[in-house]
Amino acid sequence: MDTQTLAKDCMKDLQIVGWPLIEDQLWKINLETSEVPQFVKINSKFDDQYSEQLEVLLYEFKDVFAWTYKDLKGIPPELV
């Protein structure tokens, strides 16, 4: 399965608006190493198959996240 199809499948029938952001309903996923962690959080209410697909997608595209202020290319430092 190509990544575009995987992304579309992951987002199918998903309603983001209205989700509560309650810490105990989130799973923390480390996309890097234990020495240099880079965490994202996903809803723990997702079914197992969806969670696995989402985790694969996040790992594959982890380079698109701005992990530090230096990663925010084109944003003046005084804005952050």
Structure, described:
28% of the residues lie in helices and 12% in strands. By secondary structure, it is an alpha+beta fold. The protein has one domain (3-79). The protein has a two-stranded antiparallel ribbon. Helix 1 crosses helix 2.
Outline of the structure:
This protein has 80 residues and is of the alpha+beta class. It has helices at residues 3-11, 48-60; strands spanning 26-30, 39-43. The protein has one domain (3-79).
Helical stretch tally:
2
Oligomer: single chain
End-to-end separation: 38 Å
Q: What average pLDDT do the residues reach?
A: 79
Series of H and E elements: HEEH
Number of domains: 1
Biggest sheet: strands, sense, closure? 2 strands, antiparallel
Strand-residue proportion:
5-15%
| Total strand segments | 2
Percent helix, as a range, is 25-40%
| Structural class label | alpha+beta
Principal-axes shape call: globular
Rg result: 15 Å
